Amino acid sequence: MSNTYLQEYRRKLISAEKAAALVQSGDHILYGVFLGRPYDFDMELAKRRDELFDVQVTQCSGNTVSDNSAFADPSGEHFTSNSWFFDITERQLADRGMIFYNPCQFGQLQDMIGSDLFPYDIYVQKVSPMDRHGWFSFGLTNVNSLESCLSANKMVILEVNENMPRVPGGSEDAVHISMVDYVIESSNPPLKTLPPPLAASPAEKKMAEYIVELIPDRACLQLGIGGIPNTVGELLVKSDLKDLGIHTEMFVDSMVTLSDSGLVTGRYKATDRCKITFTFALASQESYDFMAENPLMASQCGRFTNDVNVIGRNDNFISINSTVMMDLYSQACSESAGPRQISGTGGQVDFITGAWKSKGGKSFLCLSSSFQDRMGILHSRIVPTVPGGGIVTTPRTLIDYVVTEYGITQLKGKPTWHRAEELVRLSHPAFRDELIKQAQQLNIWRRTNKQDA
User: Fold this and answer.
1) Which alpha helices (DSSP H) does 285-411 contain, by range?
2) Per-position b or e across 393-408, b if 16+ CB within 10 A of its CB
3) pLDDT digits over 319-333, tens only?
4) What is the rounded distance in angstroms from the CA atom of residue 308 to the CA atom of residue 322?
């Protein structure tokens, strides 16, 4: 390691306690997203809660947020907490009025941060240890990291965690010691991992089977999180498809399986040929180990991975995502249950639009036809209209394929009556008659259709 870089590192080295002491009332702090979120700094900042006022803290899916965090201020006088994307912990804090959602289409995040729309004073991110050239890898969280370092009004603080792997780029995958103000050597808490996926339900297996039948050789894949994408990965491994590519927002465990199987070569990708393109990871430790120092990986910023034109340059782009609810107009609610925010807009719209721009591209929105509430009462996920307060993530004009356990349909280019007819067909049989009646009242049901359709 260069003595010059090492000396600069030592000059900028500071304890988490002293770093948190730099925060002043009225400051707006931005944390690294997902696994880039700092831990030690946040814990020290939380200790100062009562002496600070009107401090804003913005992050994305905390994964270490707790009542001990700077985010947990019941009074709202000291800290106002915001998040780009909700996980289960953030949902619980939001229910208690301790965190607010910041609506954002994932592909626009960097541009927002780099503009006057989102001014902030201090940026803090977890990174890998510095290399001999003076660079800190953003590791498992690229996204908006470099943009955030460059756009902070007051200072940039890095929290070095030895568990963060170095993951090669790509672009904007690291920051140099000369570009930051302070460095914290953290207590090295382990990185959050996702538990092994639950066995796919019969409905998820059926939906995955429908999708795999429509995936061609040389397809370029974007897989989201959950049972359906994992099951798609399992089925693909058993298929005779060839030369698949991966260009995704989130790296998940099934991508390791696909890579190890030899199905993923990436040789026909138009971008990052022969590499797996991603911008952040949430997976198992085995996946993190797979990604570490792996030349197969292309760690790209979110402005690249979620650019609809970049996505569209790859032929046969396949986007697979889930939604919570869809109405008969084919509006998809993917981030809320009524007015309650349960997730985030994320990159769903980016990848659906990008797949449409791709020659031979397809996007699939998956949802089970029904669910049971805590009382055991069955409810339809296909509804006449979006319930009051429901958030539409993907408008009907962007919807391509819709999948439930009862079938698959392509809605792109179809009129309202055809969409209603197909969605009734994909709904749970227990709700079809009522959905038809509701479609008639909404005047989106053809009079020539049979009532038992």
Assistant:
1) 285-291, 302-305, 308-312, 348-357
2) bbebebbbbbbbbbeb
3) 999 999 999 999 999
4) 19
Q: Which of 362, 308, 397 is nearest to 107 (CA)?
A: 308
The residue type at 398: L
Neighbours of 199 (CB within 10 A): 10
How far is 143 from 301, CA to CA, in rounded Å? 5
What's the whole-number average pLDDT of the chain? 93
Q: Residue 224's closest CA among 398, 346, 340?
A: 346
Query: Residue ranges of the alpha helices (H) in 59-189?
Result: 88-95, 109-113, 145-151
In the chain the first and final C-alpha atoms are separated, in Å, by: 71
Q: Record the pTM.
A: 0.94
Report the length, in residues, of the chain: 453
Confidence of residue 409 (pLDDT cuts 50, 70, 90): very high
Partnered with residue 318 across adjacent β-strands are 221, 362
Catalytic residues: 249
362, 270, 264: which is closest to 320 by C-alpha? 362
